[in-house]
Automatic annotation (TrEMBL), chains A, B:
GO terms assigned for molecular function: fumarylacetoacetase activity
Keyword Nucleus applies: no
Domain (Fumarylacetoacetase-like C-terminal): residue spans on this chain: 133-419
Superkingdom: Bacteria
InterPro entries membership: Fumarylacetoacetase, Fumarylacetoacetase-like_C, Fumarylacetoacetase_C_sf, Fumarylacetoacetase_N, Fumarylacetoacetase_N_sf
Name of the protein in question: fumarylacetoacetase
Taxonomic source organism: Marinoscillum luteum
PANTHER family given in the database record: FUMARYLACETOACETASE
Cofactor(s) the record lists: Mg(2+); Ca(2+)
Domain Fumarylacetoacetase N-terminal: 24-126
Length: 423, 423
């Protein structure tokens, strides 16, 4: 067991039972506290932990960290140090916070400068994203979409169970939780129309996804073996792959989604390390037909992470509309990364890979409005008496995620965005 | 007329009549001269012009350029200064090189440090590419592919004449001319097979494209009007969108090309400014049906740029296999950029946008082996007695481009890559 994951660990900083950030989590992010203080942080309970200040005070002495590594406005340099080093930082944080350790606990002056209440800071995008890839790895989602647009007997494409299907997305328009955006415009075509029209999308949707971020690069031409992919994956975030379904339908044949997706995507601010999720590994689904050898992972694993989606209409309360789980992936992250690089494609530190919509096997576990309201045929009632087929202006969509076991809850916080009217 | 484009200009540096780099061109690139000297350059005749040294010697005084702007290993900061400034630099270079100007001409000591023979330096990737988009804007190419995979009566998709179809590609695997690469592996399926196999692609192909690079960003949520797109486009390069056709065929439905493309793409090292190409604007094709208002450009323009592809088998001579032209684009670059941002997608300085394969109306003007050898049915003879349906190991593929008018030739140099055997 990774020492920092021990369920028995207690911190001298009190954390509530339902906190996303107990001592066993210790995720990494970038925070801004006022105009002139931006840097790397971890989290415990309701506090961010200012890593720059801890570094300056010498609490990381002996870990051979580069100067200023926590003073940047992204985590790229830090996570690029490699897992051996980032793991030591997480372990050191765990030690400092552990109830029997007095180094920080008994230093009141330092504590107030290192622990800052979360509600006083702004969280920023945690990494500079070089390239962003979106996979399509939930069988239920692919099946649902196939049923809608083709038929249940041929719902999955012939390649789907052989290839972790994916495509490249837009990195520039990925923003952090809390960023609002305007309803996008685009070309759409009415069912019986001869020509398309241009205007605000009428079918704005979310997609419930998880994303992983790589912390290690491979050179162009070299492939990452499926069993070694762990070494390249630093951690995970929640991901909302906002989509305009009517735009997508008209544009996506033959080269895939483009303007239907690239107007905006969003991530949760905290990167939960792959290490912290290690206790929540569960077996993946049986893969039949057998996958090709370069995708074979004897120790195949998924992660048991509860995922929930809420819609909050303007001026109303939030309502849970989905409860899915990351364990429902057909293709796991090792397979995704092995496939991505099987042709020699190079990856970089800070690249982001999203799972594709994660739909569970039952209707309440579907991961998009397209599926939850089944193409508009099953509208979802809201607390204010309205109903939703897709997302309205003024709606806030919130995704939350957490793993839970042995009394330990490893949470992701949330990714939250409000939809503003078209500009 | 832009002053630096005047066909009457002569330089005191002799340039051959067929040089790509007369005084009217003055492109920008990044060069490396030995281990410790990397920086921005322009070109004239057979020389690179060391802009860092010119700057340090005070030749750009009065242009208010930031310190060290020419000392970087990319042009991003320079082109991000905006067209007003980059235009002044090109004009200043034009003045310095003009035959009646004696500032540099009569300073032998300085001349030898500023002008370096091209064959002594290495050219690097000119920009850090944030996001890369590939369009699909040549009607003949889309028609040819449609004929092969569907039928001539329904060759173009219903959306093709309404949308400048495009998709996101991989930025990390774009390299500069001169970079060799290994034949990629991938999943393919034989015509009668039940399951796919994994191995080296048997259908490695080039795609003859042009790319443009943006020099100005727009904020997320804001669109670039079609008539203003010029302001955002700094210049052009040659682009080879290397493709594995057998991988592409198996993977691309429904989300588009992924591993069939992202193993490697290549660009020519010199960015020819949009300003330098201004004299070569020609009317675009008639667009019927009429495009939607956000794509209407009353002064629609293409660029008359000759494009040629050569194959050089290992140990043999090169053979020209294609002669196309950038003027054959159905959708122009203004329309591409207006469409790309119509939904509020943000672009950044240094982003790259490729045209898609540029196939002219006659078979010798097709821009890929898929089309030139028509799916392998019309093999192309090589100088060494072999023939080509697709690209073999050991082959070097070279693309060259130039515009020519009034005795002035504005060239792009070349993009050249050799295919090495699978690793």
């Amino acid at each position: 067991m990774i020492k920092a994951n021990n369920p028995q660990l207690k911190s001298w900083i009190p954390t509530k039972a339902d906190s996303d950030f107990p001592i066993q989590n210790l995720p990494f992010g970038i925070f801004k506290n006022g105009d002139d203080h931006t840097g790397a942080a971890s989290a415990i309970g309701d506090f961010v932990i200012d890593l720059k200040t801890l570094y300056d005070l010498g609490y990381f002495d002996g870990l051979s960290l580069p100067k200023e590594v926590f003073s940047k406005n992204t985590l790229n340099e830090f996570i690029g140090l490699g897992k051996e080093t980032t793991r030591k930082v997480r372990e050191r944080l765990s030690d400092l916070l552990e109830v029997s350790n007095t180094e920080l606990q008994h230093n009141e002056a330092v504590r107030s400068s290192v622990f800052i209440p979360m509600d006083q800071v702004q969280m920023l995008l945690p990494v500079h994203i070089g390239d962003y890839t979106d996979f399509y790895s939930s069988e239920q989602h692919a099946y649902n979409v196939g049923c809608m647009f083709r038929d249940p007997d041929n719902a999955l494409m012939p390649n789907w169970k052989h290839i972790p299907v994916g495509y490249h997305g837009r990195a520039s328009s990925i923003a952090v939780s809390g960023t609002d955006f305007h309803r996008p415009k685009g070309q759409t075509i009415a069912p019986d129309a001869q020509a398309p029209a241009f205007g605000p999308t009428k079918r704005l949707d979310f997609e419930l996804e998880m994303g992983f971020i790589t912390g290690k690069a491979n050179p162009l031409g070299a492939s990452i073996p499926v069993a070694e992919a762990d070494e390249y994956i630093f951690g995970f975030v929640l991901f909302n792959d906002w989509s305009a379904r009517d735009v997508q339908k008209w544009e996506y044949v033959p080269l895939g989604p483009f303007l239907a997706k690239n107007f905006f995507s969003s991530v949760s601010p905290w990167i939960v390390t792959m290490d912290a999720l290690e206790p929540f590994q569960v077996p993946g689904p049986v893969q039949d037909p057998q996958v090709l050898p370069y995708l074979e992972l004897p120790d195949r694993k998924n992660f048991d992470v509860n995922l929930k989606v809420f819609i909050q209409p303007e001026g109303s309360e939030e309502k849970q509309v989905s409860h899915s789980n990351f364990k429902h992936m057909y293709w796991n992250v090792n397979q995704q990364l092995a496939h991505h690089t099987a042709n020699g494609c190079n990856i970089n530190v800070g690249d982001l890979y999203a799972s594709g919509t994660i739909s569970g096997p039952t209707p309440e576990a579907y991961g998009s409005m397209l599926e939850l309201a089944w193409m508009g045929t099953k509208p979802i009632p809201m607390p204010d008496g309205t109903e939703r087929k897709f997302i309205h202006d003024g709606d806030t969509v919130i995704m939350r995620g957490y793993a839970e076991k042995d009394g330990v809850r490893i949470g992701f916080g949330e990714v939250r965005n409000k939809v503003l009217p078209t500009l």
